[in-house]
Each structure stands twice: as structure tokens, then as C-alpha cells.
Amino acid sequence: MNKPASSAELLCKARTLAGLTLAELAELLDYQLPPNLLKDKGTIGQLLERYLGASAGSKAEPDFPELGIELKTLPIDALGQPLESTYVCVAPMQLGGIQRWQDSWVCQKLSHVLWIPILASRHIPLPERIIGRAFLWQPSAAQQALLRQDWEELMELLMTGRLAEIRGAHGEVLQLRPKGANSKAVTTAVGSEGQPVLALPRGFYLKTAFTRQILQEQGYC
DNA sequence: ATTTGATCATGT
DNA sequence: ACATGATCAAAT
Fold this sequence. Notes:
The protein is α+β, with helices and mostly antiparallel strands and 221 residues long.
């Protein structure tokens, strides 16, 4: 699909999908929907990327580079509550990575997001799940401060060899969790003595309480 | 191996 | 019931 020329155009186009089922969207794109998400977890996001004209592929840049906008689907239940945490990006695990919050992937990716809620309770068959009303979001100063605080805390632990201490419960709004093919995937990280060690790759995720707050601001739930 | 798209599914 | 830790596929 064509690239949107402005954020307004992008939002407008995304909103035309509100109320459609995933089967209907798949038909618009002449795409064969998988029976479920067991082996195709990212398929909904990819479908919307295609429809809205996002850059394809897995490049480490915003979905709409010219607009600086990141597209995120958000599974919600019938009450408008988020069903899952939201993946943001992988975490730099080696020394010499990004130091400043302003330059971090988390900050950049979350600076401007097109959220597309999907009514996606697990009992609803994939084709029958319904696309919600998309909205653009930029973090408020308070939200930004929360994100920054968590990010700085987690990065401090990562860079000082205390990765082993980190669990998903760390952080108010942002958490660090495994992000890899499986529990045997490895990447280089900082060991307890500052030495390079192999460790499970991690990613940053937004906790559901945070995305719930974003939805509430928009009049969902 | 890494980053993208995320959700699954078990343990608490 | 829910979050944490585990996992799946494609593109690069």
C-alpha cells in the first residue's frame, strides 16, 4: 500500500478500519489468515503494516520513518483492557551501547505511536477479532518521566553486570523480559565482574497498567 | 545472530 | 487470575 504523506492521513486511513474483522482486513489485502496465532504471533501487526504502508522488513527504525511514527497493535478485551504487555524493542546488553535516555530506542520508539487496539480475547477466533479505533499518542511529561526512570534503572543494572538480578517485576511501567527464539538463545552481555558473558537476549516491554492508562486517556475502558 | 512483528502458557 | 518467563516466524 502507499505510504501516508502525513500523520493525519495515516490516522485517517487507520480509522477507516475500525469495526472491521481481521478476516475482512485480510481479504482487502488478499492475504490468507492463519487459523490462530500459535505459530504466527506477529501476523496482525504485519497485516496492518501492509495496509497502512509501513516500511516492510525488520529494520531497526520506526514503521513510518518520514513521520517518525511507530505502529503498535494492542490486544484488548471487551472492556477495553489490555490483554498483554507491549513489546517495545530489544535491550542493548553490551557496554558502549546507548547511554542517554534521549538517544535510547525506547525513547525514540515511544515518542510517537499509532496505537491500534484489537478486540482479541482468546475465545474469539482469529478471523472474527475486531479492529478498534486507532489513535495517535505521545507520552505526557509525566509518562516520559516514568519511562525514563525505569529505563535508567534497568540500563544501570545491565551495564554493571547485574543482569541476573533483573526480573519482569522490576520497573513501574517498563520491564525487561526475555526476547529471543527460545531460552537457549544467547547474546553477549556484561558479567558480574564486567567481563563479557553469554546471556539470554532481553527486550523492553510496557506493562499492562501503563497501556491501560493510555487507553483510558482515549476513552477506552 | 539480530531485530522486527508479538502472543503463548506455565508458575505463582 | 495474572504476570513472568518462554516461544514462534520472517527478514536481514
